[in-house]
Design a protein that fits this description.
By secondary structure, this protein is α/β, with parallel strands linked by helices. Helices cover 47% and strands 14% of the residues. It is globular, with a radius of gyration of 20 Å. The chain starts with a strand and ends with a helix.
């Protein structure tokens, strides 16, 4: 039998993190974060990382005392192990293929501990790579073409990519120039949309996908409140520190929140305008996330977290 895996998906600020912890406590689970921004160390406030602590020793999971995993410290949120957080420094590259390999390894380890793997996050392609066993074999790059593409603006690149791959353009992190360049490069070299080259393999897992559906007005209010909370938690200080060490042009600093605050720190906008841009761009990002997830008919959509508990209990029986 295939290992059972639970996936909790949805757009930003929908309540995925809290539900993942609740489910993990109920079933003796461990959470794997599926968020392409939380992998970066030191990028905490702007990525809305859950507040937790690094522990050593032993911990109670699902009513049973377990030794921690390996000699190094592990990250816990409300005594629930969380994986996929702080994997690389902000100036290191981290791809969907790397995450797929990492997540599959962690799922194997979690299952061996007789715990339940719970994938929680809103990066749709990363989730699909794991649960659909996507073929991520790479197309050889073309140095001349790559140089030509990298010389263009991000806006021009995305506009060109959208014409070649309309579906893929809704899925990709459009603020990440390196990924847009790569997707466009592959589409040009193969003559096929990049999204179509990521074919599904035989799934390795029996997966329950639970999607959190939130009323749009409520969601937008949550997004606005979250951004205000980030500012109160010294997002500007975090970005300033990262800017001094890495600059603002590396891939990780193109994410929502970091890009806009960088513009403020460089004198290209006011803080008020930067905050409004973060809210607007986050709303647009949430809309793209929902467009992605709504296409997947396997997702069980809920409006009340209690519905998730019923689904999980039935699934695990």
């Amino acid at each position: 039998m295939k290992p059972k895996v639970i996936a909790i998906v949805g757009c930003t600020a929908s309540g995925k993190t809290a539900l993942g912890i609740e489910v993990a406590k109920l079933v003796g689970g461990e959470v794997i974060s599926v968020d392409s921004r939380m992998v970066y160390r030191g990028m905490d406030v702007g990525t809305a990382k859950p507040e937790g602590e690094w522990k050593t020793g032993e911990i109670t999971i699902g009513g049973r005392i377990d030794q921690l995993f390996g000699a190094r410290k592990e990250f816990f949120v409300e005594d629930i192990p969380h994986w996929g957080i702080d994997l690389v420094d902000p100036d290191e590259e981290y791809s969907v293929a790397q995450f797929k390999e990492y997540a599959e390894k962690k799922i194997t380890e979690i299952v061996k501990r007789k715990h339940v793997p719970i994938l929680v996050g809103g990066t749709g392609l990363w989730l699909s790579a794991v649960i659909d066993n996507l073929d991520l074999s790479s197309t050889p790059s073309d140095d001349v073409l790559r140089e030509q593409l990298e010389a263009k603006s991000l806006g021009d690149l995305f506009h060109e990519y959208k014409k070649l791959d309309p579906i893929g353009s809704e899925q990709i992190d459009r603020d990440n120039k390196r990924r847009v360049v790569r997707a466009l490069e592959v589409s040009i070299l193969t003559g096929k949309p990049f999204s179509q080259l990521q074919t599904r393999g035989v799934s390795k897992y029996d997966v329950l996908q639970i999607g959190l559906s939130v009323d749009r007005d409520v969601l937008y209010e949550r997004i606005n409140d979250r951004v205000d909370e980030m500012i109160a938690k010294e997002l500007v200080t975090e970005v300033r520190s990262l800017k001094e060490k890495y600059g603002c042009t590396i891939e990780s600093m193109t994410g929502i929140g970091y890009r806009q605050v960088c513009e403020f720190l460089e004198g290209r906008s006011s803080l008020k305008d930067a905050i409004e841009e973060i809210k607007k761009d986050t709303r647009h990002y949430a809309k793209r996330q929902m467009t992605w997830f709504r296409r997947d008919e396997r997702i069980e959509w809920i409006v009340n977290p209690k519905e998730a508990i019923t689904l999980v209990e039935t699934f695990l029986k």
